[in-house]
C-alpha cells in the first residue's frame, strides 16, 4: 500500500505542480487572471488519481471490496504526498521565476480593499497586515505548509467522496471474466 501511496501521490503532485510551474514561467512570474480558479481546477483533476488508486486497490488487490476507512486513509496518504510534491514544485517555481508572491498577493489584496471603498484607517491596518504577511511568506518554513494547505483539503474532499462511493462493491464494479 505504501508503494501505491507514494507513486499515486507523486503523480498527483506533479500533475498539479507542473502546470502551475508552466503557467507562471510562461507569464514571466505574473499570476494569470483567474489563477486561483485555474489552480484549484488543476488540483482537482490531478487528485482524481485518488479515486483511481482506491478503485485499483479495491478491484485488483482486495477482490472487489474495500471498506470506507481503509479507502479513505489510502486517499489521505496520496493527498499528503501530493501536497508535499506540489509544495516543492511551488518552491521551485518561485526560485526559477524569482517571483515575490507575498508582495504580489499584498498588492492584489490592498487593491481589493481600495475598490471596496474601505476607509483610510482600515486600509492602513490592512497594509500593516500585508506587510506582516510578506515577511512571514518570505520564510520557506511558513510558506511550505501554507502551500500544502491549498491542495490537501481538496485531497481530503476527493478522498471522502471516493471512499464513500467505492465502498459499495457494485459501484463501477470490475468486469473481469
Helices and strands in order:
Blueprint: H1 2-26, H2 35-46, H3 48-61, H4 68-97, H5 101-115, H6 120-137, H7 140-166
Estimated share of beta-strand residues: under 5%
Order of helices and strands: HHHHHHH
User: What's the total count of β strands?
Assistant: 0
Helix content: over 70%
Largest sheet features: none
Number of H/I helices: 7
Structural class, please? mainly alpha
Termini separation comes to 25 Å
- Mean of residue pLDDT values: 91
Cα-based radius of gyration, to the nearest Å: 20 Å
Basic shape: elongated
Please give a quick description of this structure.
The protein has a domain at 2-99 and 148-166. Helices cover 80% and strands 0% of the residues.
Descriptive report:
The protein has helices at residues 2-26, 35-46, 48-61, 68-97, 101-115, 120-137, 140-166. The radius of gyration is 20 Å and the shape is elongated. The protein has seven helices and no strands. Helix 1 (2-26) runs parallel beside helix 4, helix 3 (48-61) runs antiparallel to helix 4 and helix 4 (68-97) packs antiparallel against helix 7 (140-166). The chain is mainly α. It has a domain at 2-99 and 148-166.
Defining key terms:
mainly alpha; 7 helices; 0% strand
Amino acid at each position: 500500500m505504501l508503494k501505491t501511496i507514494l507513486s499515486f501521490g507523486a503523480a498527483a503532485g506533479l500533475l498539479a505542480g507542473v502546470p502551475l510551474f508552466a503557467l507562471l514561467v510562461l507569464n514571466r512570474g505574473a499570476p494569470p487572471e483567474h489563477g486561483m480558479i485555474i489552480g484549484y481546477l488543476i488540483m482537482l483533476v490531478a487528485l482524481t488519481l485518488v479515486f483511481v488508486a482506491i478503485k485499483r486497490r479495491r478491484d485488483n488487490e482486495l477482490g472487489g471490496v474495500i471498506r470506507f476507512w481503509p479507502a479513505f486513509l489510502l486517499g489521505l496518504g496520496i493527498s499528503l504526498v501530493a501536497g508535499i510534491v506540489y509544495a516543492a514544485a511551488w518552491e521551485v517555481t518561485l526560485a526559477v521565476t524569482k517571483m515575490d508572491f507575498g508582495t504580489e498577493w499584498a498588492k492584489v489584496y490592498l487593491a481589493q480593499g481600495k475598490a471596496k471603498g474601505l476607509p483610510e484607517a482600515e486600509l492602513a491596518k490592512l497594509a500593516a497586515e500585508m506587510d506582516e504577511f510578506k515577511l512571514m511568506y518570505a520564510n520557506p518554513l511558513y510558506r511550505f505548509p501554507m502551500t500544502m494547505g491549498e491542495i490537501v483539503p481538496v485531497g481530503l474532499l476527493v478522498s471522502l467522496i471516493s471512499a464513500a462511493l467505492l465502498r459499495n462493491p457494485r459501484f463501477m464494479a470490475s468486469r473481469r471474466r
